[in-house]
Specification:
A hairpin with a 2-residue loop joins strand 6 and strand 7. The protein is globular and about 70 Å long. It has two domains: 320 residues, Rossmann fold; 43 residues, no CATH class. The longest helix is centred in the first third of the chain and has 26 residues. The chain is α/β, with parallel strands linked by helices. Strands 1-8-9-5-4-2-3 form a seven-stranded parallel β-sheet, sandwiched between helices. Strands 6-7 form a two-stranded antiparallel sheet. Helix 1 packs across helix 2 and helix 5 runs parallel beside helix 6. It binds thiamine diphosphate and magnesium ion.
């Protein structure tokens, strides 16, 4: 069987000679700033969760380069079907931290009005960022369905389906890759192999020599890339996007990266992650690698670093303040946005919940009219 070589662009501090990333200096800084904003968001959400002000969060430490590199290869008119760990993609494309914080607090400005879990973002502007699916792998067939629809309508949008190593064991992975291959659908599959699916190491996930090799069974190209190398992920994704847009069909990219924090705020990775493994990956931290590259290019300065860090921290801290002070959704929203005409049984359930809440005095009608 042919081994799949892993694409790498950044050595410790330099891009491969002749490598054309196609980004201006400002765009390179924008990528770096997006990674710093992800870290700031992570840090503040961890504090908010530990102090009981939000219920849950998902850390991204270690996978920022992969998310930002991949997202940088897409146009704003393309459609992203992300995993719960992918909010750096939204940040790169200009979603303000406050929009994300509204979801973290589940308040009345949250797009889902608090009816999704925290970190389960959905945005339509400035990028098409589909609502996160908690059940693993279910968004892969959704991405292929959307891609097939664009193909049928002659629209040139490309879809990204991003998922983890654990996601490859889902039924959605099989049906999505199968039909995408058959239809030559314009979709890019990004498997972020971050070493772990909660506490299951990647070695327990598959007997295949890699995740990329699985593409072969579906008749599509599979490539492997250094997932902590933003420019390599960008290059592999750009090539896959170009193929998809040209009508040549899907690609499976396996990006080898590492989850340097817990699976979520409900997890304690010190119980199962070997310290030596963590240390090995700390040395390949994607943010540090990209910083060294910017320094080598003469773009990075300590002043730039300080300014970007401060801006990221200020933006996220201010966003948290605003979102925390924003009123909760009205009680009536538990029942809204599903039926055009509310069925009788729901109308009755709604009324009794509303009466109970009013009697107990622990909730009020909220800011909208109850649709009864
Ligand atoms: C169908 C399904 N099974 C199990 C779970 C519980 N679960 C949530 S995240 C997760 C691990 C997924 O790992 P991976 O795909 O590698 O993504 P990562 O968290 O590493 O980014 C599991 C098993 C789920 N959400 N859905
Ligand atoms: Mg994983």
């Amino acid at each position: 069987m042919t081994q799949i070589e892993s694409l790498s662009v950044l050595s410790s501090d330099n891009a491969a000679p002749g490598h054309a990333h196609g980004l201006t200096n400002d765009e390179l800084v924008k990528c770096y700033a997006a990674m710093l904003r992800v870290r700031a968001f992570d840090d503040i959400c961890m504090k908010l969760q530990r102090s009981g002000r939000i219920g849950f969060s998902i850390p991204n430490r270690g996978v920022e380069g992969c998310q930002v590199g991949a997202a940088s290869a897409f146009e704003k008119t393309d459609f992203l079907f992300p995993s719960y760990r992918d909010f750096g993609m939204a940040m790169l494309h200009g979603v303000p931290a406050v929009e994300m914080m509204h979801n973290m607090f589940g308040n009345s400005k949250d797009a889902a009005l608090g009816r999704q879990m925290p970190v389960h973002f959905s945005f339509t502007e400035p990028i098409k960022f589909f609502s996160i699916s908690s059940p693993i792998g279910t968004h892969l067939p959704q991405a292929v369905g959307a891609a097939r629809a664009f193909q049928a309508r002659g629209e040139k949008h490309v879809c990204l389906a991003s998922f983890g190593d654990g996601g490859t064991s889902s039924l959605g992975f099989h049906s999505a890759l199968n039909f995408a291959g058959v239809w030559k659908a314009p979709v890019v599959f990004l498997c972020q192999n971050n070493g772990w699916a909660i506490s299951l190491p990647s070695s327990g996930q598959t007997a295949s020599e890699s995740y990329a090799i699985k593409a072969k069974a579906y008749g599509i190209p599979g490539v492997k890339v250094d997932g902590n190398d933003l420019l390599a992920v960008r290059q592999a994704t750009r090539e896959a996007v170009a193929r998809a847009r040209a009508g040549e069909g899907p690609t499976l990219i396996e990006a080898e990266t590492y989850r340097m924090g817990g699976h979520s705020t409900s997890d304690d990775p010190t119980k199962y992650v070997p310290k030596e493994e963590l240390d090995k990956w700390e040395a390949k931290d994607p943010v540090n690698r990209f910083r060294r590259f910017l320094e080598h290019e003469g773009i990075w300065t300590p002043e730039l670093e300080e300014r970007l860090l401060q801006e990221a921290k200020d933006e996220v801290a201010e966003a948290a303040k605003i979102a925390e002070a924003t009123p909760k959704p009205g009680l009536e929203t538990v029942f809204s946005d599903v039926y055009a005409e509310m069925p009788d049984h729901l109308r009755a359930q709604g009324q009794s919940m509303f009466d109970l809440a009013a009697r107990r005095g622990d909730a009020a009608a909220g800011d909208g009219a109850f649709p009864l």
